[in-house]
Design goal:
194 residues, alpha+beta
Amino acid sequence: MRPYGLRARVIAAAAVAIVVAVVLVALAVPALLSRRLEDSLDASLRARATDVARLAAASPDLVTERGALEGGGLLVQVVDRRGRIVARSGTLGIRVLPLDGPGRRALTGRRAASGDARLGTDPIRIYAAPLGELGASEAAGGAVLVAGSTAGTDATLSDTRRLVLLVALLAAALGAGLATVLTRRALRPLTRLS
């Protein structure tokens, strides 16, 4: 076996190992970050929905008062058992949160649900929870929908993917260069012998 052939094989094996490791990191980091950011947003949405549900249970008339649903920069909408809007936060403006998906499951299935949707052209994450059925308020038996924009999360993930890819390419190039230098040094005695 020629030393040059052995050197090429060792360098190729090292380069393949480096590329595989870098690809795994490039896939794992954005996936983990995406999960963490989504979990954090979901926790905020759940907490706000819980606050609104408590308000609806303790003081049903307050839910429909102007300004009662403000706070936190989240989009909040309360619907009655038929899906008609009873109250909404000012952050929604003239927009209406979609009732399909999580909202429908909260109304008909009487269980909380979350999912992704669009509000116009904006990507959002929605959490919907059923409200108590007791009482004579308009919201009784309805649901609360809380949403937050995912545009910031999407931008962060996009930037992270680009950064990880750049660092991965640099690490692969550096690793291949180091593998070449170290292999040459390690095989130098065999080259002299041949």
